[in-house]
Amino acid sequence: MKVLHLVHQYPPEFIGGVEHYTQSLARALVQRGWESAVFHRAYDVGMQLTLRRDGDVTVFAAGAGALAPTQRFLATWRQPTLLAHWRQVLARFQPDLVHVQHLMGLPTALLHDVSARRIPYLITLHDYWWQCANANLLTNYAEKACDGPRAYLNCTHCAIARAGTPSAWGAAPLLWPLMADRNRRLQPLLAHAAALLTPSEFVRRWYADHGAPTHLLRVAPLGVTPPARLPPHAGERNDDLRLLYLGGLAPNKGVHIVLEALRGVTGNLRFAIAGDASAQPGYAADLRRLADPRVTFLGRLTRQQVWEALAGADLVVVPSLWHETYCFAAHEALTAGVPVLASAMGALTEVIVDGVNGRLLPPGDPQAWQAAIQEYVAAPSRLDELRRGVAPSLHFTEHVAMIESTYHTILSHATP
Prior knowledge:
Blueprint: E1 2-7, H1 17-31, E2 35-42, E3 49-54, E4 57-63, H2 69-74, H3 80-93, E5 97-100, H4 109-116, E6 121-124, H5 153-163, H6 172-191, E7 196-198, H7 201-209, E8 217-219, E9 241-246, H8 255-262, E10 269-274, H9 281-290, E11 295-299, H10 303-311, E12 315-318, H11 328-335, E13 340-343, H12 348-351, E14 358-361, H13 366-378, H14 383-387, H15 396-412
Parallel strand pairs: 1-2, 1-5, 2-4, 5-6, 6-7, 7-8, 9-10, 9-12, 10-11, 12-13, 13-14
Antiparallel strand pairs: 3-4
């Protein structure tokens, strides 16, 4: 059977959570006997459609020109070049099923074509993009968590801030019909899907509360892939509490909250920050200014280095300021046997049980984070209580089995 993954970006050009997941799933399905291909928008092939092999996965890279933020938003309505490439791929690959991973920067017409050819499709709702053009429920104008459209006026404020045209604030109410039309175009695509998968119960509930068809929503936790043998945990702490952050360096990740908290923490500790500084260099520079000599910046790590860093950590911190939909860092930490200090919001509240395998702390509150960190600096033996409550997260192979089962169910009900 043939499955075609539709995604906005793909490695090695882009390496984010959705991109890495799509690559991992496509490769794993090949190992289970599927013919697996990926279609993605590319920015380094001009306006051409190119084909390459990523191991045993066929990758179709569709060029349609560069995208500024406003153009990425408007691509939802019309992208004739991409649509032409897509039709070529459908005719050439002839998939039995299409798995939509992300549609940002891609036109809705791609899925209309799929339906017209009577090919079933399912969607993984990796984030909130199907309701929030920012995808992360975080406002551009205030960097604060949002719960979704409010008559679309808050959405227009975000659009103006993203476009970098603050002088147009007065025109915000005039843009709401455009924002409303965007969601009117997207919602039927959800309704016509064979299944809507979410990485957590939090995301399932959120979409259900915002109008997605509840009978189609299913939770499919993403799972993690530890090495065959986990690196041994580094032995003695030498009296230093070892904190570790793994993830993106962006304001919504809240790393600055921990750095502000550390200003008031006394005693021996070390804080290692692992993340790519190139995506938002201004924020990364702010973090360096906030850091004291106890803080080390590790840069971007390989997968093996991630597990080695976890082996040398006492606590992993996840100080997010947005509603995380899954959080690989938290799941990988637990799989490595490391307790987690996390913000009490989003899917993190499903992963961390306060006082059992970590602590849930108020997001954006440096004083609360300071108090929690100080507690474990002063009494490191209390970490043993948390370690006893840590259990490994779902393995990625179990997730792939869930996805494959979903595919078979969809295909068994597909109309020829």
